[in-house]
Amino acid sequence: MKKILSLFLCAILVIGCFAGCSKTSNELTEENVKATVDIVWQALQEFDTETLGKFVESSTLSTIVNYAEGHEQFADLGKALFENLTIEVKSVDLENKTVTVSVQNKDLYYAANNFANDLKNNYSSFQLLSKLTDDDFLDNKLAALCSEIDAAEMQPSAAEINLYISQGKNNLVLKFDSTAENAVSGGALDAIKSIYGG
């Protein structure tokens, strides 16, 4: 009887540990905010579109995620963009629903700038829209961009950004404004905006 009871208690403890480690909630606590930042960082590095859709609010990232769900080349681009990204929580402000994080990535401004310049010089906006579903085009162009990203150097220092926190149905959601999007992208977003405006 003691063996059965011991096995039963061990099983409950193991299940409890796994359940505790694998879930977050929408409760606004410092511990939950930090856990959410970790989940988002890992999801960015793996470019886990399902997790990003649940935990991140970002117009730019949403666009890439939408294309990534239909074209593996965009998923590969996402992985390349965030492979070297580091995120460290500096402070949590529960009253104002913000978290300040330090982020550092490769310096991707020039890689993105060269890529956007090449596209603008060779394709009209209308042509580019039609190319977004052309797998040969995507294979060629995005593979070249991924190579440039791979060759880029790390940024010399980290940047601090504020992320706003909202409470979703089952988890916290981190909102990335354009400053945050640019920081996590290693400057790639500003480089593209400098060519295409926006």
Summarize the structure.
By secondary structure, the protein is α+β, with helices and mostly antiparallel strands. It has ten helices and five strands.
Q: Can you walk through the features of this model?
A:
By secondary structure, this protein is of the alpha+beta class. Helix content is about 60%, strand content about 15%. It has 10 helices and 5 strands; from the N terminus they run H-H-H-E-H-H-E-E-H-H-H-E-E-H-H. A 5-stranded mixed beta sheet has the order 1-5-4-3-2. Strand 2 and strand 3 form a beta hairpin. Helix 2 runs antiparallel to helix 3 (about 50-55), helix 4 (about 60-70) crosses helix 5 and helix 5 (about 70-80) packs parallel to helix 8. The longest helix has 21 residues, at about 1-20. The radius of gyration is 20 Å and the shape is globular. It starts with a helix and ends with a helix. Residues about 1-20 have low confidence and may be disordered.
List the helices and strands and how they pair.
Layout lengths: L1 H21 L7 H17 L2 H7 E2 L1 H10 L3 H11 L3 E8 L4 E7 L4 H14 L2 H7 L3 H17 L7 E9 L4 E4 L2 H7 L3 H9 L2
Parallel strand pairs: 1-5
Antiparallel strand pairs: 2-3, 3-4, 4-5
Helix pairs in contact: 2-3, 4-5, 5-8, 6-10
